Amino acid sequence: MTLLNCLILAFVLFAIGVFGLLTRRHLVGMLISIELMLNAANINFVAFAHFKAADATAGSLFSIFVIAITACEMAVALAILITMYRRHKSLDVNRLEDLHD
Amino acid sequence: MTSLYSYSFLILLLPLLSFAVNGLFLCRKSRKASAAFSVLCAGLAAAYAISVALAFFTNGATPTVAWQFRFLPIVGDFNANIGLLLDPLSVMMLVVVTSIAFFVNIYSIGYMREDMSSGRFFALLSLFAFSMLGLVIATNILQMFVFWELVGVSSYMLIGFWYHKPSAVSASKQAFILTRFADSFFLLGMVLVSYAVKSFDFAALNAVNLKDFASIPLNLGIMVMPASDALTIGAALIFVGGWGKSAMFPMHIWLPNAMEGPTPVSSIIHSATMVVAGVYLVARLFPFMAGAGNTLCIVMVVGAFTAIFAAVIACTQKDIKRILAYSTLSQLGYMMFSLGASRLCDGSINTLGYTASTFHIFTHAFFKCMLFLVAGSLIHQVHTNDLDAMGGLRKKMPFTYIATLIACLAIAGIPPFSGFFSKDEILMTAFQSGHVAVFATGLLTSGLTAFYMFRLFFLAFHGKARSEHTAHAHEDFAMTLPIVCLAVPSLLSGLLAKNIFATKFVPGALPVATAEHLAHATWIPYAAGGMAVLGILIAALFYARPKANIERALDVDNRCKLYKTINHKFYFDEIYYAVVRQFIFRGVAASARFVEDWIIGSLVNATLFVVRKAGALVREAENGYLPFYVGVMIVGVIFWYFVGKLPL
Amino acid sequence: MILGIPFSDIVFYVVAAFMIVAAVVTVVSKNILQSAIFLIATFIATAIVYILLQAEFMAVAQVMVYAGGVVVFMIFAILLTSHLGEESFKVHLPRKFIAGAIAAAFLAIMGKFLIGQPELATATSNASAEASTFGAYALRLLSPGANGFLIPFELISLLLLMALVASVTIAKKDEDKEEK
Amino acid sequence: MLQQILFNLIWIIPFLTVLVCVPIANSKVALLKKIHLCSAGIVLMITLFLATNMILDYAPYAGGNAFAMSYLTDFPWLAAISAHYLVGADALTILMLVLAAVIIFTGVLASWRIASGHKVFFGLLQILAASVYGVFMSFDLVLFFVFYEMEALCMYLMIAGYGTGDKDLGGKKLTLTLALGSAMVMAVFLGMYVEGGSWSVFELANVKLPENFQMWAFPVLFMGFAVSSSLFPFHFWSPAGHSAAPTAVSMFAAGVMMKMGAYGCLRIAMYLMPEGAHFWLPYILFFVIFNVCFGPFIAMRHKDLKFITAYSSISHLGLIFLGLCAMTPVALRGASLQMLSHGFLTGLFFATIGMIYGRTHTRDITQMGGLMKIMPFLGVGFVIAGFAGLGLPGFSGFVAEASIFIGSFQNEGTLFRIVTILAILSVTATAVYILQTANRMLHGPVTNPHFKELTDATFEEKIVIVIFVICLLAIGLCPAPFADFLDTSIAPIVSNLTR
Amino acid sequence: MILQNAILPDILLVLFPFIVLALRIFASKHEKLQWYAANIVLFTVFIWQNCLMLGNTQIYLSNWKIDTFGIFMREVFVLGSICALWFAKDYFDHASTGKARLKEFPEFIATMGFATLGGVIVVSANDLITLFIGLELATIPMYALTAWNKKDSEGSEAAVKFILMGSAATAFELFGFSYLYGFAGSLNMPQIATEVAKNASSPLLWISVLFLISGVGFKLTLFPFHTWAPDVYDGAPTPVTALLSVTSKAVAIAFVAVLVFGPFAAVQQTVAPFLALLAGLTLLAGNLGALKQSKLRRFMAYSSISQAGYILVAVLGPETNAKFAIVYYLFLYTFANYLAFFIFGIVGQNRKEDFVSLRGLSKQNLTLAIGLVVALMSLAGIPPLAGFFGKFHLFFAAAETKHYALVTFAVLNNVLALYYYIQVLKAAWIDKPEVEPCALQITCRQKAAVIILMIGVIACGFVPMLANNLFAGLKF
Asked: Which pLDDT does position E383 carry in this prediction?
């Protein structure tokens, strides 16, 4: 278990998140993929804090903050999705077609 | 005397004053007042000019610059001035121009009597007189060019005086554009020469010795050559200006067409004064041109060819003014080749040519001016230019008849009329130059001249009246007076002025050797006179013998091809038309516009197209599809990883 | 120590493999509810990694906030908006292919980038154990001093309040009847 | 001191006029027109007064590369970038100011009879006026640029709002191309400050900007300025813009604005970057060939009066650039004279064309004929403009062109010789299209019976024409004082060019 | 002097949403009360900030840094909020064509207040956590505000697009932060700065720069992260569009400035080519996209994309000049953009918000038409309007570090910009309306706002020395 392993794990997760973000048609599915990406970043923080950083506490703290901020973001996102659902009766990303050039 | 000289600019200013007053105030108010004012100014100018001339020639005829001011600074001491040069040549021209202007002004009172816009006519006539005077008194070549252009413009406006006549308008345009075309070479030559010599002054130019310039290289763009060669080219280019203005072949076509203008205009501008400006230019720069290689040979060849060419055409024309126009061309050719023939085969200069040419300018001015006035008088009475409609005017217009006879004899070169003396000297020059062909041409032309002039004379005045108007013709006082007055110098100017010309009209110090011993052929006057008499007799045979069938003689349709070709002026109008219309307009100008509209235009449009397409691309990316946006964003990160120039 | 590999390493590899598999299932599962469940699994695996990295407090927070809070919240949303998560959408193969290509390109870039730095592989833990204790966190969070995070700690409350206000306002039904 | 204040008022008065007119109702047309005419007249008087003062009493050039400045006003303006409000007048400036003031004054008169929207139209015209005055007066690059860029938008609104034909496209072409030019100018100005350490033209003149900077900056700056002088290949805005523009705007654009470009080329590009000039101008000469030699021929094939005049302007501006490229004192002086001369000339051209168009409602020369009989005053005005345009001695065009030709022949470069020769020969083509136009339009029988009811010039139109003719004649008949006066501006530039 | 304590206005600003919400809860009967209170607080904050002493940097609790740049940026944010507040008031009263009326104004104000606060946090942050929180606090309310009109399907669509892309961008951002932390081992910005100066060649640093800039590039609508902007601007309620185009952009640019002149100060010129390319492509993309628009808000979206590019140009310059130029430009941009939006809002009240409905404006209401000219030409950078001086300073900053190519490219792009701004003017001034346009309803508030903003733009242009010389001599 080296720093490198953790970092690789993180970016593999990130890439999986990216893949999900691009393939998912369900909006909540896309949000889930984003969660994966954020999680990957958190792993990075903790890994760096553990292996490398002079100020280890700060890194871990950052990821705690990230968790809180993500929670806020998700709350707003889900609220928006609900309004969206009320209007469109669907959460299919392909139905988002009113706004374009 | 100094005060006489120092106020000599008044000669110039009086016509200008007349132009300004007439043009701005009088021309709309009163035609009579404008005529009177114009005549007054012209008269005063003529009187002043004659008194200056008297004073000048009685006081040894030393060239002086009476006055000058700095017109345009060039660099350092190299300035373009406007000044007043008094030397024999310019004083002679002053007298000629002012007096002819005076007579023509008087004549115009009668001629333009019925024209509603005669005020404008007098104004323009005064403008012309001013410009012409400015030209002849020029102290330097730039001043000459300035007035040269002004003369061209006033000629343009006077030819197109009846601007409602399309033919007059197109003739005026043709005249202006052709001379302007020639002038652009003049300007080029002037720029070139003044660059090499660092001066515009005639004095400086005439003092140029090409040997001094042989070692200086001068880049002419296409090639680098010694400045002496460049100066020769410059001299030739300057001559091109005179070539156009004096309507030498092949730029002659504008002059016959210019006869569309009122006849007084033809008389002053297109016979007596403006068209000799080309000759005057060569005469003015004679020492320079004489020194400048073979320039004078070009002058000679051009002049001689034009002389015979125009004379041949004149023999077949029926339009009275056109005959006179071709006659003018022919006479101008005489003057030109006389100047040109001054240069002998060995490169030395025979000063007689200069004398003869200037002398011919002088004499020709009077009789040719008068002939035009006569033509105008006839046209005014007969209401047509066509000789077909004239005939038998001898009885109706006796004074005119006699005066015309004098003029015709003068131009034909019958002693003791004025033309004889000058033409004699010209032929002598040609003979002495050793160019036999030129001499023969001159001699032949002299015979042809006598023929066509008397053809005109007989057809107009003898025989029976061939039209209604002719039968009721009468003489108009205002028009006859100048004719009669001009008959006097036509008769006498040769005799009286011969000595003055022989002694005073010799070019100043020449940069090349003058010819010392030349063959003096005493038979030449007889040969010339004989040719003239022969021409008169042939004319009389065809047109004046009692049984002559005038109608048949005037019929063109049944003539041979050669006659028709000559009658159509060798189709030069058509050639000109083809060159201008087809080549310049349809060719050069159309392709320039094609380049502009299609190539430049499509470049601009292509740029716009690319911008628009790029804009469309940006906007098409906004297709509203969220996964696509996300994809673009992530690809964007990868894109910047590679493109962002970060030191990764 | 098994086969010369430290125990913690073996746990790490196993957990990592599990995590990746769970993540893959999360993103490819047809059923959105299933995805959410596997997301929880991923998060729990992450928590285990945190423990391995001596960040126990992080692990607790991860499980509580993320797995317990956010994902449950998400499941609520799914259940609210779709009928038991049955709704699934077909995705065209080209799109998956392109997505895979982009993800692979990303992987390649990052892999090349990270593997190109040998010093990362040799870095060993130098942080003292106290650094990641709960006490350390609390001290740093509440310290007004040189390296304290009092202000962010206060600010995060503003953020939460904002999220509360905003999402309630957006999500609540209007009092007047919605026009159909 | 009083004169200095007057000098600064030159650009302030137009702005004040706009402010004064803001509360006046749009319906009070007569009052609006009077106010604007008065303001333009006052400015004209001021410039004439100051110009006379300067011409009567100026110190001849005594060496060095500093301009002989009068009315110099200098105080800090934008402290953050150390830009100054630095205005002053030397010979070139004051003469260009007179030109601009004349054009604006006559422009107001020529717009006397526009149909509606007086308030906005005259307001925009005044802003245009202020901008050109400012350009010629300012010697600080920032100030210069502010004024230089100001006119583009006003031009668009005036053309698109008050023009004729395809006015939107014409206006856009003009505005955007000009904006392109000023963008190039702005980029180099910024660079000049960074390399030279000052915005002041005077101080930059003493600094030798680094050669590698000049190598790219000079062509960009020169072409940027040349855009507004319609140098090939940026001339395409000119026919489109002029043909669409209302009379006053055509007069202004061709008369003053095109000179601003040439002025900038001379005063800023060549003066401050002589090394770049020496390297690049021979190449720029290739563009000049197009202007000088193609312009007249293209004009020959056009039937629309404004197109003809636009291409005529293009060819005349080409002569200015020929003078600039030649870089000899005579040629530069010729170019400056040509700026003045062409300003008056083209003002007269566009004024008469506008007046004729206002009556006949067509600009197609094939549909006109015999107008000389119906409107002799306008006809004569047009003919005079034509003759001045083809370089007839007596009018200012000749002295300018002759100086340019003589001057550019003094540059010994092979290319310069060839171009000079071509330029001199192509002068004939100018005569062809001008006479053709005048003949078709003015002479011959009256073709359209409707024309017989038309009237000749009104009083204010006559004033316009007379003013222009006087200006053309004044320079044409005694150019020496102007030329000597201009030398005090040209000589420092030459001294920099030969450093 | 307690009034000079720079933290106090910040505290007032923190209290601002609470005050509004409290009034909403406890005095819900008096609808005007919250509006007045909001005005009073915001103006107080704005005036107070203007009275603060400039030139010295104060640090509170080690994480809260208040410097000159921060104070000016605070003023920009608060100014933006005031404008948005005024704009929103009428929008809430009247709504716009075909859309339902907006509700919950107090909550709207509070959320907007939070967003403003987010900006303030970004410019005050002295460590990465605070910076990140600030950025999120400035962004998340925007997602919510975009979806404020619950009855408008376009609004929620826009919000969905916005939040999904925004969260993904946040993930990148966070990845960047993590590598930066990994590189420096600390979250404290001065410490990071020393680390960067010591070890500028580490790949970790540069990958973090890539991710950070990409992440913030989303908020700043840099190419190719701008794709969301036209759709979101188009779908959001107009006041939110205005807020997005001004405050959100200002926050993002402040973030870039804080990073580039803070932790990355030592490697600024190494990042410069990247930023230059970003700026160049962004302004090109924005300009190209706007060329043929017919909807006003989409048009403003592209316009603001290109404006972001222009502002980014300044970041390449030396610190003092760059920060000054950014602050100066943001002020003018706020004026001009809100002026445009006010006019579009007035026109959009009972017409569709596209170019066609602008036709005949010059005949109908000359003040609005002139206001439009002033606003758009200021945005296009035509002197003597304020925008020109703003842009001049932006380019000046970049030219000072000899980025001539970028500056030239940017100024040439101005030509394209001029083209599409002219298109709008053409609609308002030149084109004739096909049908008689319906009458405009203008409240006194709107009229006052338009006139004040117009005077602001013109005055800043005609007397730039007032605004400009204020900054002279300041150290940022």
From this structure: 84
